[in-house]
Amino acid sequence: xxxxxxxxxxxxxxxxxxxxxxxxxxxxxxxxxxxxxxxxxxxxxxxxxxxxxxxxxxxxxxxxxxxxxxxxxxxxxxxxxxxxxxxxxxxxxxxxxxxxxxxxxxxxxxxxxxxxxxxxxxxxxxxxxxxxxxxxxxxxxxxxxxxxxxxxxxxxxxxxxxxxxxxxxxxxxxxxxxxxxxxxxxxxxxxxxxxxxxxxxxxxxxxxxxxxxxxxxxxxxxxxxxxxxxxxxxxxxxxxxxxxxxxxxxxxxxxxxxxxxxxxxxxxxxxxxxxxxxxxxxxxxxxxxxxxxxxxxxxxxxxxxxxxxxxxxxxxxxxxxxxxxxxxxxxxxxxxxxxxxxxxxxxxxxxxxxxxxxxxxxxxxxxxxxxxxxxxxxxxxxxxxxxxxxxxxxxxxxxxxxxxxxxxxxxxxxxxxxxxxxxxxxxxxxxxxxxxxxxxxxxxxxxxxxxxx
Length: 453
What we know:
By secondary structure, the protein is mainly beta. The chain has helices at about 15, 325, 350-365, 385-395, 405-410, 440-445; strands at about 30-35, 45, 50, 55-65, 75-80, 85-95, 100-105, 105-110, 115-120, 125-130, 135, 150, 155-160, 165-170, 170-175, 180, 190-195, 200-205, 210-215, 220, 230, 240-245, 250-255, 260-265, 275-280, 285-290, 295-300, 310, 340-345, 370-380, 420-425, 425-435. Helix 3 crosses helix 6 (about 440-445).
């Protein structure tokens, strides 16, 4: 990656990034700065994470390299042209521009003292910033990845995407792990992230971002907003996530005040899409930004001066009883007994893996004569040129159907990209958030009752 150090932390040109109609008074305009640019051929696998002190950036860089035939890895995806898409944990010193560490892997997350990073690599591993040492086999990999890190009662605590959590003794997980409990009316929720004090989590319930206690059923706050994964501020008062900008194909960052039950739209003045925010200890937000003018990581500050709006009424969640026409009003229902639809986006680096595994599953179901149609639908914010490039690069030929913003609003695709829907007849009977493997798709469809014709 090449760039001039002097260009990393300069303020963004308002003329380049703001439309004249969107410029507000200085007192109500957050300050935005560029932090680190992405290379033109570089993607980001899932979320980036800023260190608590705001100096170090950790993300899973994704790029295509020449494949070595016969080499297999859980973080490699082979395309039809002999290319491998690899995910590499990359840790950057934003002050100097130096890349401090790289290793094949995904899902890096910082400790609260900015000294360690946990990630999925050859094993579940922890990298030490000052010494450069790496501890391996922190826990078994089957407890889940996509970690979040807290300090609860003076002990380091790790939560995974599957709702398992465990304390650390040094660099080793203390077993047995615990599990986020089911609660009346909301269950356990999907794909949680933990607060910095280890007492609350953000999660998804019927399409909305929900806050609840980690270990019991208290402290439930329904934001009424369909957003993506929500990061806690260090004082626990705020959460931040991205959500679709109404009437557009862009995404904005929202900050919810859990005390006042209000929210602010941080990036309304920007013309591109703002994605995957996370807080620094001093109250700034680090996030990914995609626009023709700039593509990379940014900081936002001074956003609490923006006007706040009340949260939507609680209970404005997705209906449990949805049908085909609610989601795909512009496409007739297939005549098969079951239909599976992968909803994906070009800005989610999980999508190529999901497309590849869904395509493999489609061929399996066809060869086994299952009473099932497998389709794909790209979410509306993905640009047509980017869609064409991603599909051709990965050799994807899945049949595609149109999806409108109104249809997307009827799915948990606004929480997680990609999302897979399963219909029996015209009724939506289940959905899976995140990329599903070939085996997971086959087991899921079989368990739902689909059979060979």
